[in-house]
Amino acid sequence: MKNIFKNTGYRLFTKQQPGSVKIAFSYIPNPDGSVRWFWNSNSKRPLFLKFYNIATLKAKLFSWLVEFLFVLRLQKLTFKKETVYYIADGKPIFDIENDWAIFTGTVGPNNKCLLYSNGCFYKIADTVNAKKLIKKECTAISYAAKSSLYTIPSALLHNESILQLSDISENGNRKNEFGEIHAKALLGIKERYQGSCRISEWKYFQSLKEHFSAIRDERIPPNMIRKLNTILTYINENESIDLSFSHGDFTSWNCYIKDYTLAIYDWELASFERPKGFDFFHFIIQNGILIQKKSWKNIFKEIKEKNAIAFQYDDKELEKYLKFYLLTNLLSYLKIYSEQEKWHVQIHWLLQTWTEALNIFLTENNTERELLIMDIFDQLYHTPYATLKFHNEAPENLKLNSDIDMIISSRNAKKMIAFLSANSLVQNITTVKKSFMYSVRIITKHHEILNLDLISQLKWKYLQMMDTNEVLANKFKNSFGVYKVSEKDAARFIHLFYHLNASEIPDSYKNFVSEHVDSKKTNDKKTIIKVLKTKDYNKGFRFIKNVCQYLKDSFSEKGFIMTFSGVDGAGKSTVISEVSELIEKRYRRPVKVLRHRPSLLPILSVWTKGKEKAHQDAVNSLPRQGNNKSSVSSLFRFGYYYTDYILGQFIIYLKYVLRGKIVLYDRYYFDFIADAKRSNILLPKVVTETGYHLLMKPKFNFFLYAAPEKILSRKKELSYRSICDLTAEYSQLFSKLEKKDQNVKYLSIENNDLDTTLDTIMNTIITTK
Questions:
Q1: Fewer Cβ atoms within 10 Å of its own Cβ: the N or the C terminal residue of the chain?
Q2: What backbone phi and psi angles, to 5 degrees, belong to 150?
Q3: Organism's domain of life (predicted)?
Q4: Which of 361, 376, 401 is the last residue of a domain?
Q5: Could you tell me the CATH number of the domain that includes residue 602?
Q6: Which residue from 246, 229, 57 is spatially nearest to 144, judged by alpha carbons?
Q7: 692: Cβ–Cβ under 8 A, 6 or more apart, which residues?
Q8: How many domains does the chain have?
């Protein structure tokens, strides 16, 4: 504060000095406690609102409240106040006893304070960089002044530290949304200069690249650095780039709409070397991040919409110049931030959005899943967390069937879920909350799956295994910037997890565990449980709480039922086996495979032949060979099996679905409708169709079919004609059921290529909410 006033012609003191005059300053602080705005406590007008972006409803309410307080003369009682002493030194540029206000500016090497007094703004520079910038702004204003499409302030450079600017904001309004008036102004700015060159000859860009390569700031998220390096590597240096004159910081807070013309302030970053469209992208992106708190997904949508107003670039050109806007702006600010001792929270907002925006230009190098993993770890970079059993490669190289387990507080887990929900790569996100973790399943736009376990407590059933605070305290950072659980804690967790689940430790972990876990430690499950129960976090009320939470967690996520129908030879068994593995390994849900029925009741022949003989005969017999012609016998057989479905469905629901399992039926009730002969039943179709209405409807139903020739090449159990007839029956049935109930999936799939069939099935599962 003393330097600010020294440059304007005053010396400040905290204590009375000979010849000094007492004065009181009122101020409003930043969230970190530093002074944001301050003014003469005797001021009768809230001039500090000149620095405030009054464009949102919240901002308008604040400004109205402030003005109301000044009208009632309550400002001295409302705002914080500090008493100081001053001595005029030479000829000051403003009257300290009169109305004035100062904005201390944004922290950093380019920091300048802004004084408003006598109807003018004064930029007060205190650093070498800031002094260069105000001199540059004076030159830029002189160059940009002549235009009928926008207005700018007049400028007077008092000395190397002070630039005086006229106030062109009177009776003007700020507007956060980019409109035709902004587009008109940008056309005028662009007309001041346009040119082109090869990228290899673009000095500004090559200089930014050189400075970027020299940055060694560990505060910058490492995956952002790797993304930038990848994009820069694949740039064609012989490509031509269009350049134009740009304002450089064209934002809603530097513009006023006045008499259908845009008044533009703050020309210190004006340049002839930026890519065309720079100011357009800058306005929407900076406003979206800092003012409207939008996600990149919504910002990018706005860019495409407003492009129709501003330039009408085609998609290819829009993407090209958005890329070079992001590169030039990001590389420029990374250099500035690397020289800044303390980072304010807005820097983290900007970096988070910029790194996500870069994903658009990396789709040829990385999958959406890989890019999302990079975004996740950059988002967490300044958050306490530690991954568990995570690989030692680049984070995005995580195997398709692997998930990410991490220790993280519940509060930060919620922030991560909010981040993922807004991410532009994410199509759908499912979150299951348990007492000790959030289980998160993410589906990308291209239907790739990523699973996260965000663990706040390390538990096995009703017992806490380890203290997560201690685990986080012992974490370490690998060469890719990923924080990992210490080797000792990881080995201890693996040892406890597998022994408590009475499972053999996998060969890949055996040497690791034996190296870090005391060989004298018991491997007996009962003894481990007994030891864990002696820990404070498993004793008394906490033990009761853990038990109750475990019981509740057991029903935290419901499963669902899937059915597979089709004639013999259609490939059901192979598909079911593959789908079962994909669901368990990639979708990360336990699977239970059932054949045809719930099987609460045995097959009928068990009652006459005995269980073993009946099942052996069923295996050896060909399908559709029964010779039952009796309606009474058929009604009895159907009634028996239907009872199994009616009663068994509740058992299956309680035993499996309610506890989170995915039930796969190899054949289902549809056989009774489309192929009753297979079950030796001869009844009108209306009877079996009516019975289906009383059953719980499986969530997914897949009918697999193929050309008769292909089926006969696999199995010769059915005739050509039978295959055609049955395929038609199933197809008609599924089409009919699909029309009746839109909430249940009935899908017919021609099973010619296994990979295509599996993709269709898995995409149906993961894209259905």
A1: C
A2: -160, 165
A3: Bacteria
A4: 361
A5: 3.40.50.300
A6: 246
A7: 669, 670, 673
A8: 4
- Tell me if residue 669 falls in helix, strand or coil: coil
Q: Are strands 271-275 and 240-246 parallel, antiparallel or unpaired?
A: antiparallel
Same domain, 400 and 547: yes
Residue 172 in any domain: the answer is no
Query: In this structure, are 421 and 524 located in the same domain?
Result: yes
Distance CA(302)–CA(321), nearest Å, equals 16
DSSP letter assigned to residue 173: B
Same domain, 113 and 216: no
- Asked if 356 and 372 sit in the same domain, the reply is no
In angstroms, rounded to a whole number, what is the distance separating the alpha carbons of residues 153 and 266?
9
- Asked if residue 96 belongs to a domain, the reply is yes
Look up the domain containing 484 and give its range. 368-553
Answer yes or no: do 395 and 337 share one domain.
no
Residue 476, SS3 per DSSP = strand
- Closest by Cα among 96, 154, 93 to 124: 93
* Residue 522 backbone phi and psi in degrees, to 5: -70, 145
- The radius of gyration computed from the CA coordinates of the chain, to the nearest angstrom, equals 35
Let me know whether 542 and 655 are in one domain: no
pTM for this model (two decimals)? 0.82
Q: Which residue has the tokens 């992208």?
A: 281
Tokens (6 digits) for 34: 């530093």
Residue that is last in its domain, among 553, 572, 593: 553
Question: For residue 704, what is the enclosing H or E element?
Answer: strand 700-705
| Per-residue tokens: 456 | 């706040």
Q: What is the mean pLDDT for each group of 10 consecutive residues in the chain (769 residues)?
A: 80 90 92 87 91 81 91 88 90 91 82 89 89 91 88 91 90 89 94 94 96 94 96 96 96 90 93 96 96 94 94 94 97 93 90 96 95 96 94 94 94 96 94 93 93 95 93 95 95 92 88 84 83 91 91 86 92 94 89 91 64 52 63 87 93 92 94 86 88 92 93 83 92 92 92 93 85
Is the CB of residue 766 less than 8 Å from the CB of residue 447?
A: yes
Q: Alpha carbon of 118 to those of 4, 115, 121, 128, 159: distances in Å?
A: 17, 10, 8, 27, 18
Residues 160 and 257 in one domain: no
344 in any annotated domain: yes
Q: CA angle 588-591-597, nearest 5°?
A: 155
Spatial CB neighbours of 594, under 8 Å, sequence gap ≥ 6? 652, 663, 664, 665, 666
How far is 362 from 316, CA to CA, in rounded Å? Answer: 15
Same-domain status, 627 and 754: yes
Closest by CA position to 481, among listed 422, 564, 394: 394
E strands, 46-187, in order: 80-88, 100-103, 112-117, 120-125, 150-151, 155-159, 162-166
Report the CATH number that the domain containing residue 321 is assigned in CATH: 3.90.1200.10
Q: Which residues contact 374 (CB under 8 A, 6 or more apart)?
A: 223, 226, 227, 355, 366, 395, 396
Question: How far is the C-alpha of 462 from the C-alpha of 538, rounded, in Å?
Answer: 9
Give the largest Cα separation in the chain, rounded: 121
Residue 79 belongs to some domain of the structure = yes
